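FIELD: query
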Amino acid sequence: MKTACIYFFVSLFCLLTSACRQSKNEHYPNNSGKNYIKYAHGLSIEKHSGYSIVRVQDPWPNAPKKYTYILCEKNASVPGELAKFPQIQVPIQTIVVTSTTHIPSLEMLGVEKTLVGFPQLDYISSPKVRALIDGQKVKELGTNQNLNTESLLDLQPDLIVGYGIDGVNPTLDLLQKSGLKVMLNGDWNEATPLGKAEWIKFFGALYGKEKQADQIFTEIEKNYISIKQKVLTSSYTPTVMAGALYENHWFLPHGNSWGSVFIKDAGAQYLWADSKGTGSLALSFETVLEKAVQADVWIGPSQYTSLAEMQKDNPHYAQFKAFQNKQVYSFSTKKGPTGGILFYEWAPNRPDWVLQDMVKIFHPELFPDNEFHFFEQLK
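FIELD: result
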């Protein structure tokens, strides 16, 4: 769905109509709800009696405002001060999501059968959801920036969970004016592994499965921290390069990015760790060669699935020590039945699997018997 080292950039602008009964004499409960989000910078959820307040901030870089949504149970009494915010009745029964990163949350919560539509179905790799697609239970909806409005109006889902680049999405605006409910999801803009994964709680709140979502995330968090601590037993710190050329630019993660955090937590030295930013760097081949020619390991070399393919495309790749030593690892080889890359769908949701893969690459002695979830050593 995107080239390696170019993360899936997304967002939407959301204004929704009221769905819950308002109580005119109650006041905003400033102190009665507690945000139970621990790592996600762009998400907060406060649970109150009969309703929850969900706030999404920075859903894309430099977003101008914080987006607030009220999730209310049937016949809930909601303070009048909250009437200005979009309101969605929960638990929802049908949903449309627009990023493959949303699919695992539905599956882990056991609500994948509520999915009724998705743009570009071939990108979905989940066997459970692919079975629904094959059974014509999930409708093809075009592309994220050009959703099929007629199909969506026909489906009438309880909720559309959207994403975009800059908050400008005329199609979503039109759908909202037609009475459909839309919420913004900013999981992609989180810069930490556990921050991205914690967005399962966003979906837990939509389905009244907050406890289950918290249990799932707590297990992921526990696994991640355990793997990270195991890395401390190794004194070896390999140097790491990433990415590859794409349209004359070499794209690789910035030093404060999600990918860079994984490398650090896996006990390796990312050669661009001191660069500032959370997105991607775009460098010349010469710049990368000068700095990374002696790198021990090369991860995420764009779409390539073999060393021969890389060398055929650009013979200069063979100048890198990691290439010569066959220490090149890619996640582009593992795909679903219709070509969707598993990493793009599951990695944001299971950072413990990603970290274990990277530790197996950098410190193979620590997990000698474990199979890779996403990566594969190129041959």
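FIELD: remark
The radius of gyration is 22 Å.
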